[in-house]
Amino acid sequence: MSFEHDFANGFLRATCSDAIGTLTIDNPGRKNAVTAAMWRAIPQAIRVLTDEAHAHVIVIRGADQDFSTGADISEFDSLRKDAETAVVYEALNSDAFTAIRHCRVPTIAAIRGICYGGGFGIAAACDLRVAEEGARFSVPAVRLGIAYPADAVQDIVNALGPQMAKVTLFTGAPMSVDKMVAAGFLLEEIAADAFDGEVSALAHAIAANAPIALHASKLAVRAVIEQDSDLLREAEVIGTETFDSADYAEGRAAFAARRKPHFTGK
């Protein structure tokens, strides 16, 4: 059964099919710039995909040829004009990045073309990132005379490593897809004619697995990255619960019968 729901006047689109959710940044007229309304809608869209559409994995991508140029700068004169308004605006950024980072299912950034600024932040908050050949990356905040939101820098450091994060944030210079692969930001670079198929294959490979086990695994990785002992204990509790789950019984039965398992998340 397929699922579709639009947010932010259609500029953000959530769809789901075969337990694979897709969140599309759909503002191609502005190279998928993210408006304040879109930032505000991202947490809701993530919740809808996980809670209502029951996605096992979420792919985040841009419509047409670009992932995203980042925040819509045309709004800055009114919505981000000084420290007082910036605090409100950046709270929207923070909530969006947090929703992606803390999403209970794995997330994949499927990157084509431009991936700049807030678009880079969205990608950095995802669990996995792949890019089409020729994609371009940059965090140009310093070139606008502003600092990148401090709490979002954690994703950039975790995804790039400290030194590459520093040069990316300090220079604002464009980075090639090759450099992003070498830094570990990207899982791989994919040829244009194979991109959609490879993204789909990766998403299907994840979605085919047991949701509770995926959740426990994601929490455990987060706990290690964030050095959070409470989160680690939560991951341990959920991991233990998998042994009493119907999915574990199904996994054993499928292995014995040499067939593919059908997991339900129970």
UniProtKB/TrEMBL annotation:
- Which SUPFAM superfamilies does this entry report, sorted A to Z? ClpP/crotonase (SSF52096)
Keywords (alphabetical) are: Lyase
Answer yes or no on keyword Ribonucleoprotein. Answer: no
Q: Which family does it belong to?
A: Belongs to the enoyl-CoA hydratase/isomerase family.
PANTHER family annotated for this entry? ENOYL-COA HYDRATASE, MITOCHONDRIAL (PTHR11941:SF54), ENOYL-COA HYDRATASE-RELATED (PTHR11941)
Protein's recorded name: Enoyl-CoA hydratase-related protein
What organism is the protein native to?
Rhizobium mayense
Biological classification of the source: Bacteria, Pseudomonadati, Pseudomonadota, Alphaproteobacteria, Hyphomicrobiales
